[in-house]
Write a structure and sequence with these properties.
The strands form two sheets. The protein has an eight-stranded parallel beta sheet with strand order 4-1-5-10-9-6-7-8, sandwiched between helices. It has a two-stranded antiparallel sheet with strand order 2-3. The chain is built from 13 helices and ten strands. The protein has two domains: 41 residues, no CATH class; 304 residues, Ureohydrolase domain (Arginase, Chain A, 3-Layer(aba) Sandwich), CATH 3.40.800. The chain is of the alpha/beta class and 399 residues long. The longest helix has 19 residues. α10 crosses α11. Bound molecules: manganese (II) ion. Manganese (II) ion binds next to loops.
Length: 399
Amino acid sequence: MARYRERLTAGRLTGQRRNHHPSFDRTQLQGWKMMHREAELPHEAWNAEEKRCLTQGLEGADSIEDRSIPTFSRGELPHFAGINTFMKAPYCEDVHDVGKYDVAVMGVPFDGGTTYRPGARFGPQGMRKISALYTPFNYEIGVDLREQMTLCDTGDVFTIPANIEKTFDQVSRGMEHVFRSGALPVVLGGDHSIGFPTVRGIARCTDRKIGIIHFDRHADIQEKDLDERMHTTPWFHATDIANVPAKNLVQIGIGGWQVPRQAIKEARRRDTTIITMNDVAALGLDKVVEIALETAWEGVDAVYISFDIDSVDCGFVPGTGWPEPGGFLPREILYLLGRVASEGICGMEVVEVSPPYDTSEITALMGVRAIVDVLGSVVAHGKMGDHRRLLRDYGAGEI
Ligand SMILES: [Mn+2]
């Protein structure tokens, strides 16, 4: 230890330099590039937010030195305070106004489709709560969502706990309303049974075709489970919709001991593309992205992302309905989600977050992170608003 310290001191005194990376150019680091990209981002929306908070929340007490701090917390700060809409976005209480926003987050608190652990009815609340932790800025990708898009929270769809089919009708109607308004729907589930009515709602707004990229450990494509359309069945019914072809359904992360044989029979019959976890390991993430985008987008006009939180290894997401080991690492799934969203999306859902089984809100946090990473990618690639092309040349009348 003494000698080590001596060497260090000697080096410092003589100006000795380490030279392990002679060709290293720090300007090639994302860290350097994005540090400089930040300077190019606007501040207008933040300035307007600060002004609004002061006007609505009263100027702060005389002893407060930072005069942008109001008496009553309004908007983003502090992160532990306030009314928990998703990322403290404006609550769009009158849903007729939803079209004023680029993106609308809507909750679907329903777990009547679960066949093991319930609790996903608390998913929207759980994700909203922990979403308060985030700022709208992501340094790594150089995006400030507050400056580059508008976001609202519509609150939750009125689900019917004891009736799956009535709930499906409510979800499709809500989804159709949001999509037809021009806002991009982002759904906080809810168990995975809602994957059918969410897609059906969008499909009703257009005669153009829609592909689906589905992250899951489970195939979720059998016709019925326990005699009903449960959370194991959304893709059977979604791909029965005329403009949602099964050949454009890509299912990533499937595997393990919880995929029933009837689901695989159905996937085979419909010729969907399943990429197992072993395929992912063999192909590498970039190749998976390429295959997913090529397959989902072939001959369609838009792609929907369905993210089942249980596609992530259950060690990272204990709060879910059907935990299965061997899934994605968090940074793998975040990479995949960001990349598959880079060509734009017509909607997204995060399902199977079950806060009663969660620990330290880590599962809900993962769900939130998936959403902001997808939105960040859509914005970074200039694709925000592309989903509205599904509405073009199509009747945008009352539902
Ligand atoms: Mn699943």
